[in-house]
Design goal:
By secondary structure, the chain is α+β, with helices and mostly antiparallel strands. The protein has eight helices and eight strands; from the N terminus they run αβαβββαβαααβαβαβ. The strands form two sheets. It has a six-stranded antiparallel sheet. A two-stranded antiparallel sheet has the order 6-7. α2 crosses α7 and α5 packs across α6. The longest helix is centred in the first third of the chain and has 33 residues. The radius of gyration is 20 Å and the shape is globular. The relative contact order is 0.16.
């Protein structure tokens, strides 16, 4: 009798766990639907990558990763520069972030700017970066590419709009030990302080965007 009761409890626990993860996945999609997320929206999160803390400290922002949301066959994806540049299911992308927290923004007057033809152009421009390696050196080239650079370049080329101001590496706060250690790891003693950079923070704080979620 005790063994039968124990098996029932174990089965209930297994079922409860599976149901929780199933409902969490569908809750994410429902929240997206209810907030009328649009193609081309920009999504931000705090990455769990090894370089995230250094980016946060240098840019004085909690957000260290971002991408563009696209809808495909009724499902949402994030086009992002990781290793390599790829399209990632939105629910998977959210789960990968710190505490699954995210912020979604879009251009002001996006309904007039991000038209179907412009959206098509964005995807076409983005296609040239698909499969390219992640740029750990944050160089302003198209050979390798990092997350904010991908989003910035797609929007700039497709709409003519610059979301966030370009800065030099020297403009960031490089004083923290964690930042200096990461810079030393990447560049050795030859830090390219004049390298042109666009940060997730600069785009997140841009007055050209409005927050929707």
């Amino acid at each position: 009798m005790k063994r039968k009761t124990l098996l029932i409890i174990i089965n209930l626990l297994i079922f409860g766990t599976l149901y929780y993860f199933y409902s969490q996945s569908h809750t994410t999609e429902k929240k997206i639907e209810n907030n009328e997320i649009q193609n081309g929206n920009i999504i931000f999160q705090t990455s769990k990558s090894s370089q995230s803390k250094a980016i946060q400290l240098a840019t004085k922002s909690k957000y260290s990763h971002m991408g563009i949301i696209y809808e495909k066959d009724g499902k949402y994806f994030v086009y992002e520069a990781i290793q390599p540049v790829q399209l990632t299911p939105l629910s998977k992308w959210i789960k990968r972030g710190e505490k699954e927290h995210y912020v979604i923004k879009r251009l002001k007057n996006a309904d007039k700017i991000v038209t179907p033809s412009v959206l098509s152009k964005m995807k076409q421009i983005g296609q040239q970066f698909k499969g390219k390696p992640y740029d750990i050196y944050f160089e302003w080239s198209n050979d390798r590419i990092y997350c904010s650079e991908l989003v910035w370049k797609i929007y700039k080329e497709a709409t003519g709009i610059e979301i966030g101001a370009l800065e030099a590496l020297s403009d960031f706060d490089l004083s923290h030990k964690a930042v200096q250690a990461k810079m030393k790891e990447r560049y050795g003693d030859n830090i390219p302080l004049n390298e042109k950079v666009i940060s997730p923070a600069a785009m997140f704080n841009s007055d050209k965007l409005v927050t929707i979620e």
